[in-house]
């Protein structure tokens, strides 16, 4: 029986990596954060502007009342030295709110030097209006606590009559003032929230539409990878069209490299086989112990050369981008060939496949792996060989895989013999023709595709070989 060399599992180039955070998510998140910050700052700025405008309008009303008070208190008398102004008790009835007790509208007249109150509105009903001094300023405005604990907006103005200075203060409750500002702030907040939601939706749509060419590029690249297309569609926006051009150039370069590698492998094989054949023929013709030794070593060299040439060819083919094939036609063709080769033994080869399965690789590789396994089973089977193909989901890597299970009713192998059979070039039975590389090539090629080859006992009584390979998908 032929045997194999099973290399240690190498790195799987197709193993999935954890995806990074979505590019669309990043763009939407950053734009949403900046929009939210900008709208919040805009809202604060608008409310601040409205508050300042409201304060100026409020102060303008208070200034009107101050001017009315001043005009009502000043009396002009004509004298020898000209007209002189004197201060009298104001009779201000321009606004009835100054006459209603605790109405929220108040005025006072006091000395600038000692802050003694000379006159006050009837609305104060004896409660003082504790206003701060204005220093040397002619006027000032601010908020104080008025009668009853209400907040008061007070405007003060200094006037001078002769050598005496007076301060006239007019104040009004700010309840309505702040209510207007709060209402304006609420409306601004609601409006900006709606604007923000609209902006986020617009940003999301813009990102989705803007990144749609990348989705087309991904779909086109996937079609090439699955063998459905040979080139990537270059009809893309000018920002990413060069990327498609470079990818197409990479695909062409990859195929050229593979073709050169195949040509080199073929030339090397022909260049080495001819001298080895000459050496072997000369040794057989010469006879004798030395000739037998030379013939033996030439056979070993031929086996090693064949093995490494196969590995080189397989490694080159594994790098081809965008190739795949259906498993059913390839395996069915192999089984028909084996039926003809082993028709004298009366071997019955059964074939069963679950649905349509595509091998993610070249049909030549699948043909070589399947052919070696089926041929090996037919060599040792008594009368029956079973070939089953089924999909397999690998939860460890989240990859689509499939298995080819080949069983025979031959003598089989013990556990120790199966361990021995995985050594390259070892033949457990020298009476059966072969180089001992069949299963080794299968294992090597499967490993290059990220698959495995396992040997076990079969329910038919012989050997069970399970080949696991990557699939594009099952239908």
UniProtKB/TrEMBL annotation:
<protein>
    <recommendedName>
        <fullName>histidine kinase</fullName>
        <ecNumber>2.7.13.3</ecNumber>
    </recommendedName>
</protein>
<keyword id="KW-0812">Transmembrane</keyword>
<keyword id="KW-0418">Kinase</keyword>
<keyword id="KW-0902">Two-component regulatory system</keyword>
<feature type="domain" description="Histidine kinase">
    <location>
        <begin position="267"/>
        <end position="473"/>
    </location>
</feature>
<dbReference type="GO" id="GO:0005886">
    <property type="term" value="C:plasma membrane"/>
</dbReference>
<dbReference type="InterPro" id="IPR003660">
    <property type="entry name" value="HAMP_dom"/>
</dbReference>
<dbReference type="InterPro" id="IPR036890">
    <property type="entry name" value="HATPase_C_sf"/>
</dbReference>
<keyword id="KW-1133">Transmembrane helix</keyword>
<dbReference type="InterPro" id="IPR004358">
    <property type="entry name" value="Sig_transdc_His_kin-like_C"/>
</dbReference>
<keyword id="KW-0808">Transferase</keyword>
<dbReference type="InterPro" id="IPR050428">
    <property type="entry name" value="TCS_sensor_his_kinase"/>
</dbReference>
<dbReference type="Pfam" id="PF02518">
    <property type="entry name" value="HATPase_c"/>
</dbReference>
<feature type="transmembrane region" description="Helical">
    <location>
        <begin position="27"/>
        <end position="50"/>
    </location>
</feature>
<dbReference type="InterPro" id="IPR005467">
    <property type="entry name" value="His_kinase_dom"/>
</dbReference>
<feature type="domain" description="HAMP">
    <location>
        <begin position="208"/>
        <end position="259"/>
    </location>
</feature>
<dbReference type="InterPro" id="IPR036097">
    <property type="entry name" value="HisK_dim/P_sf"/>
</dbReference>
<dbReference type="InterPro" id="IPR003594">
    <property type="entry name" value="HATPase_dom"/>
</dbReference>
<keyword id="KW-0597">Phosphoprotein</keyword>
<feature type="transmembrane region" description="Helical">
    <location>
        <begin position="184"/>
        <end position="207"/>
    </location>
</feature>
<dbReference type="GO" id="GO:0000155">
    <property type="term" value="F:phosphorelay sensor kinase activity"/>
</dbReference>
<keyword id="KW-0472">Membrane</keyword>
């Amino acid at each position: 029986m032929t045997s194999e060399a099973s290399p240690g599992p190498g790195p799987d180039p197709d193993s999935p990596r954890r995806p990074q955070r979505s590019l669309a998510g990043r763009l939407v998140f950053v734009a949403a954060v900046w929009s939210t910050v900008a709208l919040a700052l805009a809202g604060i700025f608008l409310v601040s502007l409205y508050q300042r405008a409201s304060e100026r309008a409020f102060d303008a009303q208070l200034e009107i009342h101050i001017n009315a008070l001043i005009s009502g208190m000043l009396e002009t008398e004509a004298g020898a030295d000209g007209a002189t102004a004197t201060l009298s008790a104001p009779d201000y009835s321009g606004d009835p709110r100054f006459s209603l007790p605790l109405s929220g509208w108040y005025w006072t007249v006091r000395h600038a030097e000692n802050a003694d109150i000379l006159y006050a509105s009837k609305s104060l009903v004896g409660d003082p209006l504790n206003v701060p001094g204005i220093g040397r300023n002619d006027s000032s405005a601010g908020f104080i606590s008025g009668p009853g604990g209400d907040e008061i907006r007070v405007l003060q103005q200094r006037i001078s009559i002769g050598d005496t200075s007076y301060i006239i203060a007019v104040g009004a409750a700010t309840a309505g003032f702040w209510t207007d500002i709060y209402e304006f702030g609420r409306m601004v907040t609601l409006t900006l929230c709606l604007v923000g939601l609209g902006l986020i939706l617009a940003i999301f749509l813009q990102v989705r539409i803007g990144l749609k060419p990348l989705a087309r590029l991904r779909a086109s690249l996937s079609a090439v990878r699955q063998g459905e297309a040979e080139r990537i569609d270059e009809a893309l926006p000018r920002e990413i069209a060069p990327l498609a051009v470079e990818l197409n150039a990479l695909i062409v370069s990859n195929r050229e490299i593979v073709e050169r590698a195949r040509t080199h492998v073929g030339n090397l094989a022909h260049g080495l086989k001819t001298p080895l054949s000459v050496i072997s023929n000369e040794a057989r013709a010469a006879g004798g112990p030395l000739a037998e030794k030379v013939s033996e070593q030439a056979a070993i060299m031929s086996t090693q050369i064949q093995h490494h040439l196969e590995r080189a060819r397989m490694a080159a083919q594994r790098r081809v981008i965008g190739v795949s094939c259906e498993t059913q036609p390839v395996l069915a063709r192999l089984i028909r060939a084996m039926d003809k080769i082993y028709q004298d033994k009366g071997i019955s080869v059964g074939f069963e496949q679950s649905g349509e399965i595509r091998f993610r690789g070249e049909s030549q590789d699948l043909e070589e792996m399947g052919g070696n396994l089926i041929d090996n089973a037919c060599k040792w089977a008594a009368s029956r060989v079973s070939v089953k193909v089924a999909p397999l989901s690998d939860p460890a890597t989240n990859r689509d895989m499939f298995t080819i299970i080949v069983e025979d009713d031959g003598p089989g192998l013990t556990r120790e013999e199966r361990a021995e059979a995985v050594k390259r070039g070892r033949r457990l039975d020298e009476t059966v023709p072969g180089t001992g590389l069949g299963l080794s090539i299968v294992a090597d090629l499967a490993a290059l595709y990220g698959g495995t080859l396992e040997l076990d006992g079969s329910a038919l009584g012989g050997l069970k070989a399970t080949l696991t390979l990557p699939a594009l998908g099952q239908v």
